[in-house]
Design brief:
The complex is a heterodimer of chains A (about 450) and B (about 260).
Chain A (H helix, E strand, L loop, with lengths): L1 H10 L2 H11 L2 E6 L2 E6 L2 E8 L1 H25 L4 H4 L5 H5 L21 E8 L5 E7 L7 H13 L1 H6 L8 H12 L4 E5 L8 H11 L2 E3 L4 E4 L2 E5 L5 E9 L22 H6 L4 E3 L10 H4 L2 H9 L6 E2 L2 E2 L4 H10 L3 E5 L8 E3 L5 H13 L4 E5 L5 E6 L2 E15 L3 E3 L4 E4 L15 E7 L3
Parallel strand pairs in A: 3-21, 5-12, 6-7, 6-10, 10-11
Antiparallel strand pairs in A: 1-2, 4-5, 4-18, 8-9, 9-10, 13-16, 14-15, 14-16, 17-18, 18-19, 18-20, 20-21
Chain B lengths: L1 E24 L9 E11 L4 E5 L5 E7 L3 E14 L23 H10 L7 H15 L1 E2 L10 H7 L1 E2 L1 H14 L4 E8 L6 E7 L4 E5 L4 E2 L4 E7 L2 H4 L2 E7 L4 E9 L1
Parallel strand pairs in B: 6-7
Antiparallel strand pairs in B: 1-4, 1-5, 1-13, 1-14, 2-5, 3-4, 8-9, 8-12, 9-10, 10-11
Helix pairs in contact in B: 2-4, 3-4
The chains are: A alpha+beta (about 450), B alpha+beta (about 260).
């Protein structure tokens, strides 16, 4: 009943909020057939509401998961105990594209690898939350609920007076303290590849919120293994922590891809010397590999000696003979994911395939079992969205943001993404979906 | 045990002035079980302050940055060392078991491996020697057909190459055999320029083999750097800005 009231209050202002978002330039970029387009990310005014009780257990589960993932990353780039103890087969680590041998032995400041983790969850019809995937390579999206909340406050102030919604504006302070915790002495900087990047809006917005300088690579240089920013007056200022949105392999042309034009030469030397923190740490891709996802509950037990609070979606690894048998027998009902792909690409629902395609796919899996994971399709809860004058039900997920500073904290908000297509389970923004605000109630 | 003097120099000359030149050199031989560095001096002209680190593979890295305009950059090392290859190194890393960008085999190289694997038996050392012999019969040492960007599969298709190419192909074959192998860049008596060879893991130590000369590695070899393939070992890597940056590189090395 109370929810219904909130909905209608906010609904009346849907167009107004979308108009404001447009005016503020809240967009995301997308490459389609080699052409860059900026798209408006449609906002739906009906919030996802998470009760205080639900959030409490989710919060514990997410912090637990991210703590284990951070321990795992430290272990993989140092002693590799989890491999030696036979919990994860060696192949899964070293064949992963996200594993970077160049990062062996490097210890980031305060042992934090994943400073900002985006954990994607879905809620099943029975109310249970399932982890869909971990994003540990600087996940994007936090700025959308932030700015949408700001605008909703303007458009529908009553909704916030009548409901006990936790203020999500604390994200700026949370992010700032996460950056400060690993600051190696110097300014905070946010590195963007420029305005033709999918998340350029977010980079500039977060820089403003956290009081960081927004920089591009040609303004930075490494001298005496210290990262500096050329100032307009011709001088230089030291950078102590770099939030970057550039993939690892483009980060430093003298360590990784030699032809990268968007990197900073010798950044890795400054990083290795402990003179600058890189957020998130290079090499994190080994932990959010879809193949490694299967092992995260085992990691929680291994490193923390705890039972996982949040469940993985039931997952099978064709790499294991027993799982391969199951996958072959149930291919038409499972969702198959290519471990090397991201952003909703490389996701195939067995039920969508014709008989021939299914057989073809079967052969691909048998030929390259390490390349795929298979999951049961979770019948997840539909959320109401406004379409024209109607309210319709659509699939939605939640990206929760977990920040690891002195303590691991879960932001009491998040990005709820929904699918516009009534038959689709894929909610990624790059696949044409929209987003909602996520309200966490304080009681 | 052998006492050797080493010398290596590179002269980079640019067509026009360059600036904001960042470089990293892997040029200072590491102190290891098999080589004790008695002396080593590094000279860079023009003078540029540098910093030293050790990378993930155990290489000495010298990093520098020159903001002002310049038209050349020279660096040289000079020193002496005691080499005892029978002391063996044991610094294993699991990544050496997996193919890397330069060693990744294509269908032709995989088919070649399939055709020889039946006779490739015995210990890791037996297999390495066998593969090295086969390689010497299959690929011809010839300069001018490959360069530093040539991969194992490209060199194998040409059936021609230099030490770098022989190393990459042998590493690719060893890894297909399930033997961990790494790329070594260094200096050797048998070569006027920098040399490259391979180390394979016997189960408890590294053993050197020189595929370009089809022989075992002895005290006549000095290691400068090591890694999964050439990319981890490049003696100099740099990024600079300028109008025309055609560069001329002159390399001279000596082991006495």
């Amino acid at each position: 009943m109370t929810q219904q009231v909130q909905f209608t209050k906010a609904v009346g202002n849907a167009n107004e909020i979308n108009e404001l978002l447009r005016r503020y330039g809240v967009k995301f970029g997308i490459y389609k057939n080699g052409v860059f387009n900026e798209q408006f990310f449609p906002f739906d005014p009906i919030p996802r509401v998470i009760t205080a009780e639900d959030f409490k257990s989710m919060e514990r589960g997410l912090a637990q998961r991210v703590n284990a993932l951070n321990e795992f990353l430290f272990d993989i780039y140092h002693d590799k105990k989890i491999v030696r103890d036979g919990v994860i087969p060696e192949d899964f680590i070293y064949i992963s594209k996200g594993y970077l041998a160049e990062c062996e032995g490097i210890t980031p400041k305060n042992n934090v690898y994943s400073h900002i983790s985006g954990i994607d969850l879905v809620q099943a019809k029975d109310g249970e939350w399932y982890i869909l995937e971990d994003n540990l390579r600087i996940p994007s999206g936090a700025s959308y609920p932030l700015i949408a909340r700001d605008l909703t406050r303007i458009a529908a102030p009553q909704a916030f007076e009548e409901n006990s919604i936790i203020d999500n504006r604390g994200y700026a302070e949370l992010l700032k303290s996460t950056m400060e915790y690993v600051n190696c002495g110097g300014e905070r900087a946010i590195l963007t590849p420029g305005r033709y990047n999918a998340a350029y809006f977010e980079h500039s917005y977060l820089a403003e919120l956290t009081g960081s300088v927004l920089v591009q690579n040609d303004e930075l240089f490494v001298e005496d293994n210290i990262l500096y920013h050329h100032t307009y007056s011709g001088g230089k200022t030291r950078i102590g922590v770099l939030y970057r949105r550039i993939s690892d392999e483009y980060l430093d042309p003298l360590t990784f891809l030699p032809d990268s034009l968007i990197g900073i030469p010798n950044l890795m030397e400054a990083y290795r010397s402990g003179n600058v923190a890189i957020i998130n740490a290079p090499g994190n891709g080994v932990a959010d590999d879809k193949g490694i996802y299967y092992f995260v509950p085992k990691m929680i037990k291994y490193y923390l000696g705890e039972e996982p609070i949040l469940k993985n979606a039931p997952t099978y690894l064709p790499f294991y003979e027993e799982d391969m048998k199951y996958v072959m027998a149930h291919l038409d009902t499972l969702v198959i994911k290519d471990v090397a792909e991201a952003g909703g690409y490389g996701v195939v629902f067995g039920s969508d395939l014709t008989k021939e395609k299914l057989e073809e796919f079967r052969k691909t899996i048998i030929a390259e079992p390490r390349r795929f994971i298979a999951q049961e399709v979770i019948d997840f809860l539909d959320l109401p969205i406004i379409e024209g004058d109607e309210t319709v039900m659509r699939k939605a997920d939640l990206r929760a943001f977990v920040l690891s500073g002195e303590k691991t904290k879960v932001w009491a908000s998040g990005l709820t993404r929904f699918s516009r297509n009534p038959d689709s389970f894929v909610v990624n923004s790059s696949q044409g979906g929209g987003f909602k605000d996520t309200w966490v109630l304080s009681r | 045990m052998k006492r050797v003097n080493f010398f290596y120099s590179t002269k980079l000359t640019f067509d026009d002035y360059v600036h904001d030149h960042t470089f990293s050199l892997r040029i200072i031989p590491p102190e290891t079980n098999t080589q004790h560095i008695l002396s080593c001096s590094l000279n860079i002209t023009p003078y540029i302050p540098t910093k030293q680190t050790v990378d993930a593979f155990g290489n000495n890295v010298t990093a520098g940055y020159m903001r002002d305009d310049h038209r050349f950059l020279d660096f040289e090392i000079k020193g002496s060392a005691e080499v005892e290859h029978l002391n063996y190194r044991t610094d294993y890393m699991p990544c050496y078991l997996y193919q890397s960008p330069y060693t990744k085999p294509d269908d032709a190289l995989k088919a070649f491996h399939d055709s020889v694997k039946e006779n490739c038996t015995g210990t890791a050392a037996d297999k390495a020697r066998y593969l090295c012999n086969i390689l010497a019969e299959t690929v011809k040492y010839e300069k001018g057909f490959t360069d530093t960007t040539t991969t194992a599969q490209q060199a194998f298709a040409l059936k021609k190459g230099v030490c770098q190419d022989f190393s990459h192909i042998l590493i690719s074959l060893l890894r297909m055999e399930g033997i961990a192998a790494r790329y070594i860049a260094g200096l050797a008596f048998c070569d006027g320029e920098t040399h490259s060879w391979v180390e394979y893991w016997t189960g408890d130590r590294w053993e050197g083999i020189d595929p370009a000369n089809n022989c075992a590695v002895n005290d006549d070899y000095i290691v400068i750097s090591q890694g999964r393939d050439f990319r981890d070992c490049a003696i100099d890597r740099g990024v600079m800005f300028g109008k025309y940056t055609k560069q001329l590189q002159l390399v001279r090395s000596e082991l006495t």
